[in-house]
Amino acid sequence: MQGDRLEERLERLEKLLREALQRLERLEEALAAASPDTVMLASRLAIALAMPAIEALEAARRVVALARGVDDPIARDVLEILSGCEPLTVSEITRRLRRLRGSASRTTVRQKLRLLEEKGLIANLGTKARPLYTLQACIEENQ
């Protein structure tokens, strides 16, 4: 009886270790294929926004592709925050921007969101009164 339990636990542990190794291999492959800028940005996103590494790498790819035409550093940071494809309120974007930059005002965030929306880089999935912003690229990926 005791030996059966131990064997079951060992099998579960082996399965978990195999899954962890597979995830690490996928991450290594993704990192090897990414540019140094993408890897640096992914590291920043993973640390500042508590994003899993593989998700941060995908998010960084989105930002690198979109941010080429965006010279404003705050607007670029807003793109980084939205790169996880999670629809966010102005308040949540402001909170996350504070984590990235140390400070941020709602007024500035709203201005940057308006600018990015005019450029077609982000979209409002909510209403005018209660906006929820996400990257346009995220919407296109899911269609």
From TrEMBL:
Residues 3-30 form a coiled coil. Transmembrane segments: none annotated. The keyword Coiled coil applies. It comes from the Archaea. InterPro entries: WH-like_DNA-bd_sf (IPR036388), WH_DNA-bd_sf (IPR036390). Keywords: Coiled coil. The keyword Transport does not apply. This is ArsR family transcriptional regulator.
